[in-house]
Amino acid sequence: MATKRVGVSPQPFEEIVAEHGPTVLRVCRAILGRVDAEDAWSETFLAALRAYPRLRANSNIEAWLVTIAHRKALDHLRASRRLVVTDELPERPARDGSPEGWESGLWEALEALPLKQRQTIAYHYLVGMPYLQVAEIVGGSEDAARRAAADGIAALRKTFPKGESR
Amino acid sequence: MRKERDLFAALPTIDEAVSRRLHQRLVDAASAAGLLDVAYRTIETPVGTLLLAATPKGLVRVAYASEDHDLVLERLARDVSPRILRAPARLDRVAREIEEYFARRRSTFDTPLDLRLSHGFRRTVLSHLPEIGYGKTASYAAVAKAAGRPKAVRAVGSACATNPLPVVVPCHRVVRSDGTIGQYVGGVEAKHMLLALESAA
Predict the structure, then answer these.
(1) Beta bridge mates, B174
(2) What pTM was computed for the model?
(3) What is residue B120's three-state secondary structure?
(4) How many structural domains is chain B composed of?
(5) Is residue A48 left, alpha or beta, with left meaning phi > 0 and alpha meaning psi from -120 to 50?
């Protein structure tokens, strides 16, 4: 979770990448899928590196990075014209039944969810942000963010009835 | 909530190869955009692991393990820029020169230096140290005289003790007037080793 620094000395950016790189990649992957996730990750950290010296001391670095990743992911979706706002339930993705396939199947199931559900699930469940903070990033109310995530989880549950399939 | 978290606990963690590829991509993009203010790497030497850090201007810091490399990087973040990344390729040249030095195939360093971490008289002292030739030594008093302040013997001592570029800027060649070896930023043992290395060449 977010690192609290005492004092005014900024962390070397290398430490930021090591500490938050994996979380940001999971977020990008949940929102964009495997193909565009690495591009969005790279754009996120380059933008963060550019702005980093101006970041206020004691900022929540994780929330800052997720906010940048959120915008970069939207840029990608717009560029590839995949930004379709829909509340329709997605078709259930196929499962190949193998334990290994279960993991990648979950990524695919996430990809099949509407954007708002992917975002709220990624920020709340993959990052661990409270819904109030999730709402600040995706817009709308805290309740709306909670509902979107709950709807997404309900859809995932249809595909994966249990969390402990392994 | 717990059960939902379990659902995602099964997602694969990011593997090493992906992390390395993304890191390299960030280093390349940062370099191209002029955002890599401080590049660093470590190098194994007979006097232990040395941290090497460079700005676009040149080598800005060499640090012994005893100085605590994490702490040194934090100071660089504060004193130079927090835009710091591990980027070994940017330090290939200086790493090669240091390897040659420890293999006794090099007696002077040609890599560009960035002396911004040293100020005032201390910087003046450092700029005179390369005048002490390879394999030679000079007393603190002699260096004080060469730097234009013959009475500032103690200040020469503190300039050597705070040398941001040990090994490359040869503060190890400064010894006490009575012939004893004196202090060293990397420890007296390292100073002995460097002087022995140079005198054996």
Answers:
(1) B138
(2) 0.85
(3) helix
(4) 2
(5) alpha
- Which one of B10, B26, B78 has the shortest CB-CB distance to A46? B26
B70, B102, B134 - which closes a domain? B102
CA distance A78 to chain B (A): 23
For the question of an ipTM over 0.85, the answer is: yes
Angle at A138 between CA A56 and CA A36, to 5 degrees: 90
Length of chain B: 201
Strand partners, B55: B58
Domain with CATH 1.10.10.10 in chain A: 102-159
Closest C-alpha to B86, from A17, A94, A154? A17
Do B98 and B188 belong to one domain? no
Q: Does domain A102-159 fall into CATH 1.10.10.10?
A: yes
Are residues B150 and B65 part of one domain? no
Q: Which of B48, B75, B102 is the last residue of a domain?
A: B102
Q: What is the pLDDT along chain B (201 residues), one digit of tens a residue?
A: 556 666 676 666 667 888 999 999 999 999 999 999 999 999 999 999 999 999 999 999 999 999 999 999 999 999 999 999 999 999 999 999 999 999 999 999 999 999 999 999 999 999 999 999 999 999 999 999 999 999 999 999 999 999 999 999 999 999 998 888 888 999 999 999 999 999 975
Instruction: Tell me the chain B residues in contact with residue A156 when contact means C-beta distances shorter than 8 Å.
Output: 7
Range of the domain at B7: 2-102
- Domain A13-79 indexed as CATH 1.10.1740.10: yes
Which residue is closest to A153 within chain B, CA to CA? B4
B25: nearest CA partner in chain A: A42
Q: Which residues of chain A make contact with B14, given a CB cutoff of 8 A?
A: 21-22, 25-26
Give the separation between CA B107 and CA B98, rounded to whole angstroms: 10
